[in-house]
Each structure stands twice: as structure tokens, then as C-alpha cells.
């Protein structure tokens, strides 16, 4: 197949983060500060990305605001011609810093929401005072005039707050809300019993989103990531493996998706050793599940194979033990019925103690 250039790059600037969310999708082994790429290295990657055809740069983590050079990094990305989006909890952003980011050319901010009140948000984020701080940052974002997307991560413990989360997005002047039901990768896998929504909650969320989309047309765009363990078809993960986006980890490893390192046997290149374009077009990990040639049944003969590209490779690995299997969320997967039963068991589990994310050094 002819390989298109990537549209988006996620730069995981750091794994350091003041929050301890139990649904963190970062790997169990976090990169330490002394192994992170420095400013000049990131600037070089941004230029390579722009040359490769990347249009949008998502600056993420961890918490990207823990990088002292964040403003400089934004300026470098803008100089390279990239559209810049900062994905943040808001912790570590003061008015002075936000104004500096504005002056450096930051285009957009995506603010995470752990709950719609301090009791919920501070408990889930494991950070006291975080909610009040976030509201203040949202106010400053509006004052300075950044376009804002609110990113509400929802699970069994806070899904009842979805209507209020949508209201908050409108009150904050956000143009978009991403309603993301928790996905179980990385650390989040440890918390399936505590966080798995019930089927009834998943259906109620579908209805809430449908109603709000109709009511708020022209006011707020609602992106929705459904509770996929309770779905019949998988999501098209990463827009298709090696098709639209790539991730760069804090130490410079280039991944087709953020959980790709959970797939044994894949060989990943580093920007420290190889040009980004070569990694995208010729890297073994990107080629492994690109397109449809790697598929077996039921995906190979399926009418949806270029719709969802077999779902999520990392989820197939985690749940079926085989990265080339159909995503077990799919109704055609031999693992589908067992997965739905497990999801129900997790959702109704008695023991639901949260295991908060351990911090990176
Ligand atoms: Fe998607 Fe494969 Fe299921 Fe078809 S069989 S819907 S391609 S996961
Ligand atoms: Fe890796 Fe979905 S997270 S393919």
C-alpha cells in the first residue's frame, strides 16, 4: 500500500505528573527526568515532523507543564509551522505562564476533568486543591482567549456527573468536549474492577450524549469515546495503525500508539538513532499492522476491515494474547462473549479499591 504522511504527532514531553489518576494509560515503567529528551532534541523532532507532513502537534505527558522549557518548546513547534495543542491538567499553569505560552504561539488547550466537584476530582486525581486550581486555569484560558477543549474522563465512579461535565464545558466557553469513557491500557488495567462502568451506565451515557449533541448544536461539539467493553464493534484505534499519527515517548522512542510497547516482539526505533521520516515509512513496528495485509479471519473477510482496521492491536494483545487477533470487543471475535461477561463482572465487583498511579522520578 502507499503510505500517507502522518497528520498528527503526540509528543509525550515527560512522564512526570502531579496527579495520580488511576486510569493513567502511561506504561507501568515510567521514564525518569534524567532520560527525557532536551529542548534542542525536541525542537529538531518538531522540524522533522513538519517536513514529514505532520500538521498538528499534541504536547502531552504526564503533565507537560512540569517541563520548565514548555514555552520554548511551543515557540520551536510554531517556528516549525506546526499547530500546537497543549494537553494538560492545568496544574502548574499560572497566568504569567499562560500569557507566555500565548506569546509563544500556543494554538489550543485541552484541559482534563477528573470530576465535576472538588470531592470527586481531587479524590480521582489524588491531588487536593486540584479542582479549584483547574477552575481558575479554565477562567484564565477564557480570559486570554485560547480555544479550549474540555476532556472529561469517565468511569463507574463519576459517570453520573456527565450531564454536569457538559454544562461545565458550556460555562467555560469551551468549543468542544471530549467525553472519554476510560480505556484500559497501562496503569488503568490495574483498576478495571474499580472503574469499569456498568452496562446501564454505558447506555445512559449514550443517551446523554445524543440528547446534548442535539440540544447544543452550534454551541458545543461533543466527541465521544464509548465504553468499548460494552460495545459490539471496536473503535478505529489511532485512526488505523501507522496511518494518521505517531507518538514520541519522553526518551525519544517512536511508537505507532501510546501502548504499542505492550506488544512483544515489535522493534521500536528512536529519534536519537534514525530520522523520523525513515521510522514512519520504513520502521518495522509501523509496518507490522499497517493496512489490512496482516489480518486473519474474522477481520480479513470482514466488510468493516477498512472501517475499524480490526480495532485496537494493544487491546487484542491484552485481552486475547494475540496482537493480530480481532479486537475482542468485536462481536465477531471468539473472545467477545467472555469479554462482555468479564466486563459485567468487573462492573459489579464488590472489591473496588482504587490503585492510584505511582509517580515518575
Ligand atoms: Fe472490525 Fe475485525 Fe470485527 Fe470486522 S471482524 S468488525 S474488521 S474487528
Ligand atoms: Fe495501541 Fe490501540 S492503543 S493500537
Could you characterize the architecture of this molecule?
Strands 7-6-5-4-3-2-1-8-9 form a 9-stranded mixed beta sheet. α6 (162-171) links the parallel β5 and β6. The model has no long low-confidence stretch (mean pLDDT 93). The chain has helices at 39-52, 70-79, 95-104, 118-125, 130-144, 162-171, 192-195, 199-215, 276-282, 284-288, 305-308, 313-320, 336-347; strands at residues 8-12, 56-60, 83-88, 108-113, 148-154, 176-181, 221-225, 245-248, 254-255. α1 runs parallel beside α2 (70-79) and α2 (70-79) packs parallel to α3. The chain has 13 helices and 9 strands. 34% of the residues lie in helices and 13% in strands. It is α/β, with parallel strands linked by helices and 361 residues long. The structure holds iron/sulfur cluster and FE2/S2 (inorganic) cluster. The site of iron/sulfur cluster (SF4) has 14 residues, from α11. Iron/sulfur cluster binds at residues 233-234, 298-299, 302, 304-305, 308, 310-311, 326-327, 330, 332.
How are the secondary structure elements laid out?
Blueprint: E1 8-12, H1 39-52, E2 56-60, H2 70-79, E3 83-88, H3 95-104, E4 108-113, H4 118-125, H5 130-144, E5 148-154, H6 162-171, E6 176-181, H7 192-195, H8 199-215, E7 221-225, E8 245-248, E9 254-255, H9 276-282, H10 284-288, H11 305-308, H12 313-320, H13 336-347
Parallel strand pairs: 1-2, 1-8, 2-3, 3-4, 4-5, 5-6, 6-7
Antiparallel strand pairs: 8-9
Helix pairs in contact: 1-2, 2-3, 3-5
